[in-house]
Amino acid sequence: MTDSKKRFDKKGSGNMNNIAKTVFAPIYPVIVDNIIRRFGINEGICIDLGSGPASLSIAVAEKTDLDVIAFDYSEDMQEAASKNIIEAGLEGRITLTCGDVHDMPFGDDYADLIISRGSMFFWDDIHTAFKEIYRILKPGGKTYIGGGFGNKELFESVSAEMIRKNPEWEEFSRKNMSDENIKRFKDMLVDIGVPDYDIIHGDEGFWVVISKKTSGAL
Ligand code: SAM
Predict the structure, then answer these.
(1) What number is the average pLDDT over the span 169-173?
(2) What is the reported pTM?
(3) Which CATH number fits domain 3-210: 3.40.50.2300, 3.40.309.10, 3.40.50.150, 3.20.20.70?
(4) Is 16 in the pocket of ligand 1 (CB under 6 A)?
């Protein structure tokens, strides 16, 4: 198992599930509102990459008619997600798929919306992962992939609570949202030749928006 994957074993998954259901709980519906306001995509297939305990997937299923695939490589996370989806009564709307973002079991032009929160900072090879994302995105589809808490108030309240729980979290979060890291993702999008992308960086968080116009891979 790679070091990055070990982080999401039984203990790591338990911690993430706990945070998602407490400190982070208010952020997921706000993030989904931001996605709907920006893109107006309400139906079709949505894939949530690195879905963890599936809190974002659950918010999407509650607020839209999208069929959601909660995709994650950690079986322990998927176990927590499965319980949360049943608890929310959304078994018919959310499918769990176990796999790695670097090599995904979906056909070309598959998903209308690809979302991900707090996962891309852990990906080993962002060039390969984003080529895969582009390949499985449907023409007309959008991505909203990155990190953040939805708005300024939530950023402030969630950050304060996370730093209180774990002072090291402040540096981890600062690095993820830094100009250097944003440049790293921008350079990658240019390197792999994504024709149409936008970077959101502000109160909403840091998000990579890709708009795919024509069919196929890069
Ligand atoms: N998105 C969830 C949320 O915001 O509540 C969970 C975020 S958690 C910090 C990061 C998740 O990304 C973990 O569940 C981890 O297993 C998953 N992940 C990291 N690298 C991955 C990869 N290469 N392929 C699939 N999942 C991955």
Answers:
(1) 95
(2) 0.97
(3) 3.40.50.150
(4) yes
Pairing label, strands 137-147, 111-117: parallel
Is 23 in contact with 74 (CB distance < 8 Å)? no
Residue 123 CB less than 6 A away from ligand 1: yes
More confident residue, 11 or 150: 150
Binding site membership of 51 for ligand 1 (Cβ less than 6 Å): yes
Using a 10 angstrom Cβ sphere, with 0-12 exposed, 13-18 middle and 19 or more buried, the burial of residue 129 is buried
Both tokens assigned to 34: 């931001």
List pLDDT tens digits, range 80-108. 999 999 999 999 999 999 999 999 999 99
Q: Which residues are 103's β-sheet partners?
A: 100
Establish whether this prediction's ipTM goes over 0.90: yes
**CA of residue 77 to ligand 1 center, whole Å:** 8
**Residue ranges of the domains in the chain?**
3-210
Confidence label for 135 from pLDDT (cuts 50, 70 and 90)? very high
Alpha carbons 206 and 174: distance in angstroms, whole number: 11
